[in-house]
Amino acid sequence: MSGTGQFPAETSATGEFVRQKYSIRDRITADGSSGFPAEAGRYHLYVSLACPWAHRAIIVRRLLGLEDVISMTVVDPVRDERGWAFRDGPGHSVDGVCGFQFLSEAYLLTDPEYTGRYTVPCIWDRETKRLVTNNYPDITIDFETQFGAFQKPDAPDLYPVALREEIDEVNELVYQGVNNGVYRTGFAASQEAYDAAVHTLFARLDWLEERLAGQRYLVGGQLTEADVRLFTTLARFDAVYVGHFKCNLRRLVDYPNLWGYARDLYQRPEFGESVNFDHIKRHYYMTHEQLNPSRIVPAGPLNDWMAPHGREGLGV
């Protein structure tokens, strides 16, 4: 038996959460062949510090030194029926580029017939005055592969050609089981859908725990796009997903290797300084009224993200 999901349009008849398709999918290219050439100062990134998909773009933009190339505005973490809004507050602001009050305005200027959820991250083009993409996997890949001319001299190669096949394979497993797995668990609208999702999630976390026992990073002995994608889910796991999404077979801190891996990344400024637990917790607990009608935001957990991780000497 299934109940009403948090997002009815994305809930199947048997209660599974089925994520919507991201329909604005143009690409930015170094040579301009897509019609959207990589240029400094042309594109604007809209993000939420609460959203794990947007968090990826924030981390990659900083790792590559693209802060002065691609501007960025952070939305209010508390979303209502009107969608993401631009307001001044701690860690978020009004939209100084287009003067939008709500992100929906960007979507409807791009496609007046748009009917999906208005999601972050998305990229606005100042030249054509429309969104280029809201497809979050493409955004970080384009930053990494198409903005090479604008990256800082010591920028890491997060998507090296020699490792792309393995990175893509790991990303797909992590997406299905973990990144989207926490949402399939939290937004399940039937016991059967929840049971299937939560066991799939923890089977994949168990697999990651074993994979990271003898290697510092997910792929190839270096920091890659795969690590960024996993980190943004791990950063939210104990703070939100364990309680709010009922992902409670184990906590992140119960996995020695995953917890050490997450701290290893968090202790780098590009990762740790991008984590805003206030935005994260207020967004999830105050926005999903179906899951938390009281909108009370819990105080914990008190995880020590700066504790030594001891992973410096691990091999590939």
Largest sheet: 4 strands, mixed
Overall spatial form: globular
Spans of at least 5 consecutive residues whose pLDDT stays below 50 are none
Structural class of the helix and strand makeup?
Answer: mainly alpha
**Based on DSSP secondary structure assignment, what is the total number of beta strands?**
4
Terminal CA distance: 46 Å
> Can you give the helix content as a percent range?
25-40%
How would you spell out the order of helices and strands? EHEHEEHHHHHHHH
Describe this structure in words.
This protein has 316 residues and is mainly alpha-helical. Helix content is 37%, strand content 5%. It has ten helices and four strands, in the order βαβαββαααααααα. Strand 3 and strand 4 (130-133) form a beta hairpin. Helix 4 (164-179) runs antiparallel to helix 6. The termini are far apart. The model has no long low-confidence stretch (mean pLDDT 95).
Labels describing this entry:
316 residues; 4-stranded mixed sheet
List the helices and strands and how they pair.
Blueprint: E1 43-47, H1 52-63, E2 71-74, H2 104-110, E3 122-125, E4 130-133, H3 136-146, H4 164-179, H5 181-186, H6 191-211, H7 225-241, H8 256-266, H9 269-272, H10 277-287
Parallel strand pairs: 1-2
Antiparallel strand pairs: 1-3, 3-4
Helix pairs in contact: 1-3, 1-7, 4-6, 4-7, 7-8
